[in-house]
Amino acid sequence: MSAPPPAPPARKTSALQGRLAKLGIAREADLLLHLPLRYEDETRLVPIAELKPGAPVQVAGVVEHAEVTFRPRRQLVVRLRDDTGVLTLRYLNFYPSVVKQLETGARIRAFGEVRGGFWGEEMVHPRTQTLAEGSELPAALTPVYPTTAGLAQSALRKLISRALERCDLADHLPDDWRKALRLPGWERSLRHLHQPPPDASLSALDERNHPAWRRIKFDELLAQQISLRRAYAERRQHRAPSLLPSGKLAQGLLAALPFALTGAQRRAVNEIAQDLAQPHPMQRLLQGDVGSGKTIVAALAMLQAAEHGYQAALMAPTEILAEQHYRKLAGWLAPLGLQVAWLSGSQKKREREANRALLASGEALLAVGTHALIEDDVLLTRLGIAVVDEQHRFGVRQRLALREKVDGALPHMLMMSATPIPRTLAMSYMADLDVSVLDELPPGRTPIMTRLVSDARRDEVIARVRDACLEGRQAYWVCPLIEESESLQLQTAQDTFERLTAELPELKVGLVHGRLKPAEKAAVMEAFLRNEVQLLVATTVIEVGVDVPNASLMVIEHAERFGLAQLHQLRGRVGRGAAASSCVLIYAQPLSQNGRERLKAIYETTDGFEIARRDLQLRGPGEFIGARQSGAQLLRYADPDADIDLVEKAQELAARMLAEHPGTAERLLERWFGGRAELLKA
Ligand code: ADP
Ligand code: MG
For this protein, what is any one GO molecular function term (predicted)? Predict the structure, then answer.
């Protein structure tokens, strides 16, 4: 049989291209921005006698003995000797070529981490190199790149070196700006990071506070700011109905409310009212902690559209939340003689038709719903404002769909977020939005007491639930989260419900979870709202927005499994009425480090912005940005929190660069995002 023919070169190239694509490298120039994860110091040798477990080091010596043993499993064990001692090298997986390379008598260098093994100190799977006569140590640190299967470090290094010789390394930062920022040149920075000089400090490079790293991060932030700014400017070029505030309806609503707006609410209402009067679309994010009163702010904005005969739509991510918004709005607005249409995916055909007719005839200008609102047959042909609650739960496309409803002009957009976004994150990722912040809770709220209770004391918690409910208050019981399996999650909810029903015969217990039919779900929520159900067993479907002021006790089982933002949201379901509220977090041992941190944070503070800050530290920015940037990439090198000084500078200089050097701004975007800048616009 003849050997298979070698693969044609074209195939080989495309295999390489495929692997590079996995790393986000599409063009040769992208290789330059593929920066090392870390560095290894192969410039020095450590005598075997001085090895300490821990950091990776390099040793050199002669193989004294090498043997493939089979106990406890097949492995290659090598004894390496230098002038000072002997070290064991151990390979649990190895190719025959390794056995050959490490034959007795071979002179080699080995790089790896030393650890204390059963038989003394050893290196497991060190990287080795055979030493030729007179071979020298590398003069500089060795970069280690993020890579993917089938692409060796050495190959990647070669490709990058070549890119450094062939690609455009022009500095896009005007010289005087760069000097004022005290940042090194672009080319110098890239070369320093890819091919560090012999005297480069390993710690500065690894910790990424070296000036070369700061230069890269700055350019990345600048490119981000420029692209967001451009997106902002482009959207402002569209027309939108100019809705001057006349205030008649709004005044009617305010007069009828049982409360006065907080100062923060008044500020937000004014900011929004001014935006709506402009002839171009508002793009505003309303941020406020749970319970800060965003709904009324949204309602007032919607009325401003209605006053001019325009439609206003409020879209929420879940049926429960949408339904609740509907009830609240309808309750506020019916006395003013305004109808609200209600559209949800689960509605009966008749009900849906009736609501569509309300919109079609213009009898109702206001609509509330789930994403059923953006299904193409809905009649939002005169949409003046779209309000999106929990904006991060919707994809870019869904939010755009709401915008596309009107031909000619775009509606104004108000996005609301119940999960506060740390300032540093908002400054970078949300720079294309105007932001209003509700930084004040309505008065009269009693702070929520949070308690951590080990699951060994579950009975005490049950007694507390009984006492609270018998005193006329109500409680939530949130079931353990089982992320891996929805059916297991449902089963757990069902079991919890049955157990609590048996354990608390004097109470009426209800159950709500994501798989209930919408009508059933609505019925349970309704019963809870009317205090016909005292204890509501629930999955996280109640996480956002649910508002039952008489509920003052929240119990969360296996709290250690929940994310910080989730715990904060859940806790925010209580503390909405006058009664003193508490939140009991039942946890099970053993706690992971991260789980412990989360419980500690939620125990220590109820300030949503502080919780968001800690959450950011624990989870990184990806989760916060969510669907907002789906497709577009997160920052790769800069960290808006740690590099806040650079974010501020980038914000300032982005505006200047667009004004003074638009061509350079373009080239900078091209360098960082290639063809992908489009994605940042949504
Ligand atoms: P969130 O910001 O979490 O969406 P909501 O809009 O649901 O908050 O408001 C929480 C509760 O506070 C609701 O019952 C709402 O009617 C009430 N509320 C809103 N604003 C005020 C205020 N200024 N004074 C008193 N209660 C208010
Ligand atoms: Mg809300």
Answer: helicase activity
